[in-house]
Amino acid sequence: MTILTFFLQALASLLAIITFLIVLNVQRRMLIPAGLLGMFIWLLYLLLKGPTNVIVATFVAAIVGSCCSQIMSVIYKTPAVVFILSILAPLVPGYLSYRTTAFFVTGDYSKAMVNATLVVILALVISIGMASGTVALKLFKYIQKRKHVHY
């Protein structure tokens, strides 16, 4: 991937995520921070997809995004769902779902089943990754709290 392609991916993802958040009626002051988080997650996914695969890249991006969403919700004093929406936008396999439906409609059932399986796997990976990120952050907070307890 060239630097120009990377920059264009960053800009396009930022604009797409902010537009998505506007459609969902997210507070105006949260559009830029949430959009930047979503852009970061998309770029992380792109960087990881090359050396690994789509499933691993999605899983890691979901974990990192979940942790960042929780942290940013505290920093900006707003519900975490605003930031979770911004990381779901780039990770949910919308185009793959569309292609799966198109394969079913055109009667290409073998390609449809392969794509449908991948869509289900990615949906599970996203949810497991987001839950893992939340648990990892809570575990980190617990360990930090235990370090400061003196007997």
CA-based gyration radius: 18 Å
Query: Which structural category do the helix and sheet elements fall into?
Result: mainly alpha
Order of helices and strands: HHHHHH
**Number of folding domains?**
1
Number of helices, counting only DSSP H or I runs of 4 residues or more: 6
Main sheet properties: none
Summed over residues and divided by their number, the pLDDT gives a mean of: 94
Q: How many angstroms separate the termini?
A: 54 Å
From the spread of the alpha carbons, the general shape counts as globular
The fraction of residues assigned to DSSP E strands is under 5%
The total count of strands amounts to: 0
Low-confidence runs = none
Helix content: over 70%
Main location: membrane
Membrane topology: Multi-pass membrane protein
Organism: Streptococcus gordonii
Domain Threonine/Serine exporter ThrE: 9-131
Task: Please write out the topology.
Elements: H1 3-23, H2 31-49, H3 54-75, H4 81-91, H5 94-106, H6 109-147
Transmembrane segments: 6-24, 31-48, 54-73, 80-98, 118-140
Domain Threonine/Serine exporter ThrE: 9-131
Protein name: Threonine/Serine exporter ThrE domain-containing protein
Task: Summarize this structure as a short list of keywords or feature phrases.
151 residues, mainly alpha, Threonine/Serine exporter ThrE domain-containing protein
Q: Can you offer a commentary on this structure?
A:
This protein is mainly alpha-helical. The chain has one domain (1-146). Helices cover 83% and strands 0% of the residues. α1 (3-23) crosses α2 (31-49), α3 (54-75) packs antiparallel against α4 and α3 packs across α6 (109-147). 28% of the residues are buried. The model has no long low-confidence stretch (mean pLDDT 94). It is a multi-pass membrane protein. Residues 9-131 form the Threonine/Serine exporter ThrE domain. Belongs to the ThrE exporter (TC 2.A.79) family.
